[in-house]
Amino acid sequence: MRAHRHLALLAIGVFFSSEALAQIGTHTTSAGPASNSWSVSIIADGYVVPHAEFLVSPIIAANRDWLHLEARYNDEDQSTGSLWVGNNFSGGRKLTWEVTPMIGGVFGSTTGIAPGFLASLSYKKFSLSSSGEYVFDIKHRNGSFFYSWPQLTYAPTKWLRAGLVAQRTKAYHSILDTQRGLLVGFNYKKFEFTTYVFNLGWTQPTLIFEGGVSF
């Protein structure tokens, strides 16, 4: 009952924060600018984790105007899927921002309800973005957890970006609660490819190879 009360309070908070953002201005999988037509992105992350099997986590996101829809697999946990719905907000000129509060259902090895968000802040060639969620595990009382993926990037050209990244995840296990790393990414037309290296210098590195297409 206590977890349900906390969930209700968080849902109310997401609702009122959405109303407040709507008054300020009209992530990532990034939500992008508002549009009356659908935009879709497909991303697949391949995890090379020390002493573990290779793991693939696909994410499909669709946006139309304020509406954000998303489906994930192997993201919150292995053999676990999640479905999301959110509300897109964006604003700014030189300093631009995008925020998408969301609510999701999680099912599989982990089953629960998850309020979450996508957010980004950009200025010239710099970009700060983050995704996060809190999963309320309804099968195991002590199984609830917080997940996040913040990253800071610099793009010297339109096709190249590099930066810092961190994450907290349950999809695979590491001796570090919060993992830190570096990233380098390339864009070509509708395609993008990013390599992440986590835990370098702390323990045996974890590699993530990410490929995506948007249309």
Could you tell me how far the N terminus lies from the C terminus, measured between alpha carbons in angstroms?
Answer: 43 Å
| Unreliable sequence segments | 1-28
Rg, Cα atoms, Å? 17 Å
Overall residue-averaged pLDDT value: 85
CATH architecture identity: Beta Barrel
Q: What is the chain-wise order of helices and strands?
A: HEEEEEEEEEEEEE
Placed side by side, the strands forming the largest sheet appear as 1-2-3-4-6-7-8-9-10-11-12-13
CATH topology: Porin
Q: CATH superfamily name?
A: monomeric porin ompg
Major sheet characteristics: 12 strands, antiparallel, barrel
Q: What is the overall number of helices?
A: 1
The helix content, as a percent range, equals 10-25%
Helical/strand content category: mainly beta
Strand fraction equals over 45%
Query: Quick one: overall form?
Result: globular
Tell me the domain tally: 1
By DSSP, the count of extended strands is 13
CATH class: Mainly Beta
Characterization of the model:
- The radius of gyration is 17 Å and the shape is globular.
- The protein has one domain (2-214): monomeric porin ompg (Porin).
- Helix content is 11%, strand content 56%.
- With 215 residues, it is mainly beta.
- The protein has a twelve-stranded antiparallel β-barrel.
- Strand 7 and strand 8 form a beta hairpin.
- It contains one helix and 13 strands.
- It has one helix spanning 2-24; strands at residues 39-48, 55-64, 67-73, 80-87, 89-91, 95-108, 112-123, 126-137, 145-154, 160-167, 179-188, 191-198, 206-214.
